[in-house]
Specification:
The chain is mainly beta. The chain has strands at about 1-5, 5-10, 25-35, 40-50, 85-90, 95-105, 115-125, 130-140, 155, 155-160, 165-180, 180-190, 210-220, 225-240, 245-250. It is about 0% helix and about 55% strand. Strands 1, 2, 3, 4, 5, 6, 7, 8, 11, 12, 13, 14 and 15 form a 13-stranded antiparallel beta sheet that branches. A two-stranded antiparallel sheet has the order 9-10. Strand 3 and strand 4 form a beta hairpin.
């Protein structure tokens, strides 16, 4: 497979003639190969970001961008370091699978990152189900870059935070649902090994270790939009800081995926 879309960043141009300043543009090329053998799935991904101007003016993307052949970006100008990844999945059963993936940016040693884990989902009865996911993630010290405009984004937002550079993370999540009532649990343990965080002011030193737990009890009002009302408890323990405890009450849908990090 091959795709060549144009992305828009959430950085607006300071000089503009219209009512509203437009977003910056950049090109995105991705090449992928995937294969399935019985219960095994393997794949590889090769992707790059191409310069399409800066905060002052647009510029034409390098013509090599339109050639659907990987590795040509290595000889072109105005393009990011390529991100190369390998993916593997083993479907042990319909309910349980294991996965692993490894990525590198620009084939550099300090960008090597990998992840492995497992997911389980089972329907205990027609109105009762249970599932969980657990994984370990480790990122290289320069995997997400240093705030360069040629960064990977998703839905106009950064695909990876520079806070995640040089990080080690364990994530466990699970849900039990009976009829429309549910209980959810999330545990995230994060450890950072990087020295400099380019996106933060010099007088702020981010914590090196954090432990986040979130428990929610709720009622699902709509299965189509995943509209829930819930009450929850959040506990966050950070190195050299007082523990944080919060009681939450609210509603949410599946239109926007919730994220709890750091």
């Amino acid at each position: 497979t091959c795709a060549l879309p144009i992305l828009f960043d959430l950085i607006r141009k300071p000089v503009f003639a219209n009512v509203e300043s437009p977003y910056l543009k950049k090109g995105y090329s991705v090449h992928g190969f995937f294969a399935t053998f019985n219960k095994h799935q393997i794949g590889t991904i090769y992707q790059s970001i191409w310069k399409n101007g800066d905060s002052l003016k647009d510029q034409r993307i390098n013509p090599v961008f339109w050639v659907p052949i990987p590795l040509l970006d290595l000889i072109a100008n105005g393009v990011s370091l390529p991100q190369v990844g390998f993916i593997y999945r083993f479907n042990f059963s319909q309910q349980l699978n294991f996965f692993a993936q490894g990525f590198s940016r620009g084939f550099k040693k300090n960008t090597l990152s990998f992840q492995f884990g497992s997911t389980y989902c089972d329907t205990i009865s027609p109105k009762t189900n249970f599932g969980f996911s657990i994984y370990y993630l480790q990122t290289g010290g320069a995997f997400y870059g240093d705030g360069t405009p040629l960064s990977f984004t998703h839905q106009n937002l950064p695909l990876g935070s520079v806070l995640g550079n040089g990080g080690k993370e364990i994530n466990l999540s699970g849900q039990f649902q009976c009829r429309n009532f549910f209980i959810r649990y999330l545990l995230n343990a994060f450890q950072s090994q990087q020295e400099n965080v380019y996106a933060l002011t010099p007088n702020y030193i981010p914590p090196k270790k954090s432990l986040l737990q979130n428990i929610e009890l709720g009622l699902k009002l709509s299965k189509i939009t995943e509209f829930d009302i819930f009450v929850g408890y959040i506990n966050r323990i950070v190195e050299a800081q007082n523990p944080l405890n919060l009681i939450t009450l609210g509603m949410k849908t599946n239109l926007f995926k919730p994220n709890y990090v750091y």
